[in-house]
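Lecture notes, structural biology module. Today: joint structure prediction for complexes of two components.
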Amino acid sequence: MSDEKIMLLFKNGQRDKAFKELYKLYPRIEKLILSKGGTKTDANDVFQEALIILNRNLEKLDFKLTSSFYTYLYSVSRFVWKDTQKQFSKQELHNLQGEEVSILDAVLEEQKYQSAERAFRELGERCQRLLQRFYLKKMSFKAIAVAMQFKSEKAAKNQKYKCLQKAKDIYRNQFKTLQS
Amino acid sequence: MEKYIDLINAYLNKTLSESEVLEFENRLNADFEFNTIYNEHLIFLKGIERIQIKEEIREAKSSFFRFKWLKSVGSIIGVLILAVLVWSLFFNNHIPKDELRGVLNSETEFVQHFEVSSDSIITIEGEEGTRLTIDPKDLEFPSKQPLKGEVLTIQLIELTNKQDLLIANTQTISNDEWLISGGAYKIDIKANNQTLVLKEGKTIEAKFPKNTQEENMQVFYGDRNKNGYLNWNLSNVQLQNEKHFTIFCKDSIVLDVEMTSRFGGVETMMHLLEIDTLGFLTQDELNSRFPQIESFGNQVDTVIVLQEYIYIETIDSFAELSALSIDDYKTLINQRYLTKADSLQLKKNYEKRDLFYEAIEISKLGWINIDQYYKMEDRITITFENNKDVNFNTFTEEAYSENSKWHETYLIDNENNTILNVYSNSIEIPRGKPFTIISFCVVEDIFYVSRKTINFNEGETVILNYKKRNKSQIKSLLRL
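The predicted structure, tokenised, for the full assembly:
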């Protein structure tokens, strides 16, 4: 499938289908990571991050893809891998130019969301399900109350707030730990 | 804090009014604490969103590896199929002796089946034009039991050219006398899985297509012996070319020049139509009687001879007649009456109808051949040798059990419809005539083939060099 058609899938909200098409590029990214001393699991993780960053950028109004999907994903994967391995020297960072800078920015920005995800995953299962129903599935508190057997809509809302606060507390603690 | 979150969610979900949005954005710019809460909430929502994106990527990954796996399995299966095909094409040359005759005789490929009721007289027509008229009352079971309204299955084989005769292993020989075939046919009639026979003194009517320009063809009945070799025996049935009832029409136009001048230059035409019946004529008789007529029309069983003329009649000016050459005259007729398309159409119809023999009465079902004897005046003897020490003396039934090696060898006359099975180490052939020899043999279950063309003026030894071949190549090896 051509890049134009894949782009159309993203624009039409068919992200899942776009990912399926883009996954065909995985073998070449895997080759890159293996050549850098990574494992197949590393390659999987790196490619996953690259796809997430690509998707994140495509949702930005000011983002414009100036190369092919492959080239972009290759560059992002290279940065993700280097960042994971903490291989950036000061000189390298200093010499980054143009798109490389924005890619590195995107990689670093995504790390904040990774931390939020980790915080979320530390919540209890019931909290995770509750927040997912509200934020991802866009269910109303009434529907959530029925589905999760809360006494009332209000009880569901209260619980959601508590779960969110708990997750944010975890996130902040992680951040503090990282900083210290 | 909770109300902030609700407000942020409402803003992100675009459920705020225009003024509320404005107020929200102003506060975002002015209130640092609110801004921090908002940004932290966004980060957290994007963190949750990662879970959904990861799920979709996981699905894409599974789909990719599933496809890759299927592709690999497909490729392996493809390679295996290819290997089997290559093996069967190039290396599958194993064939037991018992199978050789079976794989070489493809007569079943030519069988046409007709299922008919046995309660009335039946007429069937084969693909090559053979027409059979059968009265079921004239048939019986081999045990002499009469039919009791059973459904009849008529199986008809029509072999009208040399290639078909070869593929069906239908040699053309009558008690050591060579024949030239004008078509071999097999008629079997079955009921309740038993082959029926004609009652004593009864016949079926058969009308066979005329596949050859050769005349004086005769009818032979045939039987295969246990080794599969056919032999034909001359019948007493007389075979004659079909005749058609013929009507002659002469369609004339007279241009009367004298009348033209008499009426001030206006042409006067007179149309004359003359019709006569000519009785029953063969095509040859029609051709010799009307050599200038290019085409004949036909309606049902009647041939119409349409002769068309334009007469230039002059009485007082002879010059008018000589003004037209014969070619101009013919052109004038063709332009006016016989367009090319009409002419071809009429000719085609006529040819299709005429290429038949008169219907004959057949007293024996099974193999029937339209043949004439091969005129072989100057003969030479050729002897067969081969690199596998296969004995060619295979005519007798005993030969089959006595020989572990077996051959099937065909001698094909390149100029006539004559095919022979070779079952002796030497054979007489006409001097200076081209023949194709195709020989198959099985030695220790390995299949070998040798094929060569000969044209000898003196008796010689033909050495057949057998080479391993795949049995799937038999059809192409038999291609003439």
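Point to remember: Chain A touches chain B through 33 residues (CB under 8 Å).
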